[in-house]
Hints:
single chain, five-stranded mixed beta sheet, four-stranded antiparallel beta sheet, 9 strands, Intradiol_RC_Dioxygenase, oxidoreductase
Amino acid sequence: MTTPSQTVGPFFGFALPYAADWELAPEGHPGAVTITGRVLDGAGEPIPDALLELWTGEAGTRGALGRTGAGVSGFGRCGTAPDGSYRFRLVPPARPYLALLVFARGLLKPVRTRVYLADVPDPLLGSLDPARRATLLARPDGQDVYRFDVRLQGEQETVFLEF
């Protein structure tokens, strides 16, 4: 008999958030952009205790905890605020997308998606109808700022990927 999956927690969060965890690039770094957004449930309500991990996939970047001075990392982690908001500052990768993992209550495993900073030719984007495609596109929201909301269910649910 197989044991069914169940949600787990609460977790002891020592060292889970760490200083500057959302900063993949230091302030003022040439070409850096900020991605902001909110994590929302199926009813459009904010999720105040989600955790997001962002991976740029850039070779040669430093590890998650190795950022110092002008160093740039290929990984960042950010917990959501009470209003479900999050942010990351990064140098956009050469490839057209960023990998985003979302951990939240009620999820047995993290969900995976992509963040595209531009609507470019891409096999995944090209396979989606326009409404679903739009859920993977970050919208410009000021100079060097993009907005990307993650909707876990419901209308305009973000496209999630299986690996």
